[in-house]
Amino acid sequence: MRILLLGGSGQLGKTLINSAPERIGSHLIDLISLNRKDLDLADFSACKDMVRLLKPDFVINTAAYTLVDKAESDSLKSFLVNADAPKALAEGLKETGGKLIHFSTDYVFDGEKSKPYKTFDIKNPLNIYGKSKALGEDYIMELLAPSSQCFILRTSWLLSSYGNNFLLKMLTLLMQKGTVNVVSDQISSPTTTITLANACWSLINRVSAGEKPSNILHWTDNGVASWYDIAQAIAEYGLEFGILNKPAKIIPINTLEYPLPANRPAYSVLDLTESRKHFDFPSIYWRDSLKTLIGKLKDLY
After folding, report:
1. How far, in Å, CA of 199 to CA of 191, rounded?
2. Is residue 10, in this structure, part of any structural domain at all?
3. Structurally, how many domains does the chain consist of?
4. How far is CA 160 from CA 89, 163, 181, 294, 295, in A?
5. What percent of the chain has pLDDT over 70?
6. What pLDDT, in 10s, does the model give residues 239-292?
7. For residue 127, how many other CB atoms are within 10 A of its CB?
8. Is 129 known to be catalytic?
9. Distance CA 221, CA 282 (A)
10. What DSSP designation does 270 have?
11. Rounded to whole angstroms, how far apart are CA atoms 257 and 227?
């Protein structure tokens, strides 16, 4: 089974590579990982031609333009990578017959609800990043959903031991600063890349076995939290594992006190009800998942 992974050098891509099974069902896995040096996602023709050339059974697309604030002033690049590239992949797969696992975001919603978003709730993104991701979803659904060739996996607030994410930034700030201000009025479900990678491999296994999950699925760690809650947990576990000695004092602030170019949804928790039917492992409470992740980091500090 040939699987093409896009975004292999990113935080989710690296986790997928490290957790990849040797086989799925009776099929040995031939995992081809590409990063931005190998394939320019802003080049529509190159993306489509890569699918035509390799003819993968699955494309896992973890690649995205994720600089949420910079996207406000760089909308062209955001739409090229987050909308046009998925469209190119979908067009290529429509020709070759492979399937697409595409990762998307809670930021396609506006955060005006007071209960978790279901998979087919109306999208209404507040920022350019969210709008570009929402359009990418639309292209994929239009091209591949009728033939059951696509699975869009939305998640929220990714944390990992790689790359540029809240966990690693916060550990650095807690080491170096006396006080750290953290937003406390945005609520979602923090999710580790370990959790999300497991969901991806589980989904491919189920689809390969003949199951037909919904074209749009949600997967996160269990529970809800604010960025302030996550920061407090990072400080707690950082102390427990000896990464931190005397962490900075964490001060809760509201969004208006920390203005950024891009608006964020105030509440973007995703409903997992439909998705739980299609994964063969239980979801994990976010604090337990975070603790496991920080435990893996202790030898690096």
Report:
1. 11
2. yes
3. 1
4. 26, 8, 21, 9, 12
5. 100
6. 999 999 999 999 999 999 988 999 999 999 999 998 888 887 788 999 999 999
7. 21
8. yes
9. 10
10. B
11. 14
pLDDT band at 11 (very low <50, low <70, confident <90, very high): very high
In a domain, 147, yes or no: yes
Domain of residue 209, CATH code? 3.40.50.720
Q: Which residue has the tokens 């929220």?
A: 156
C-alpha closest to that of 65 among 101, 36, 91: 36
Residue with tokens 């059974």: 57
Examine residue 9 and state whether it is found in any structural domain, yes or no.
yes
Q: Is 246:174 a contact under the CB 8 Å cutoff?
A: no
Name the residue with higher pLDDT: 277 or 205. 205
Q: What is the DSSP pairing of strand 58-61 with strand 99-105?
A: parallel
Give 271's DSSP letter. P
pLDDT, tens only, 92-115: 999 999 999 999 999 999 999 989
Q: Calculate the CA 271 to chain-centre distance.
A: 15
Query: What domain range includes position 105?
Result: 2-158+190-222+268-284
**DSSP structure string for 115-161:** SPBPTTSPP--SSHHHHHHHHHHHHHHHHHGGGT-EEEEEE-SEE-S
User: Which is the catalytic residue, given 117, 129, 139, 237?
Assistant: 129
